[in-house]
Amino acid sequence: xxxxxxxAAADLPAPGDLVNYHGSLTDLHGVFVVLPCPCRICERLxxxxxxxxxxxxxxPWGDLPGPHHVRRQSITRSTANG
Length: 82
Ligand SMILES: [Zn+2]
Description:
Layout: H1 6-9, E1 18-21, E2 30-36, H2 40-47, E3 54-58, E4 70-71, E5 75-77
Antiparallel strand pairs: 1-2, 1-5, 2-3, 3-4
The structure holds zinc ion.
Residues 37, 39, 41-42, 54, 68-69 line the site of zinc ion.
């Protein structure tokens, strides 16, 4: 997978994938396991037709509470997924 590949750029992370977080919470920049955000706010946004999927990030080592309501633009699917 080349970084210039337009299909790779559109590659959405699947639940359970490792992602790099590079959003507004700079203290939390790093690698997380990604899941769809399960909170009521994001679920409701999804139901009323928001096209923007929000994610919840989980520290794979369980040390940190990861950020919630994370925008797609704030994460990149990790190359560690293969
Ligand atoms: Zn949320």
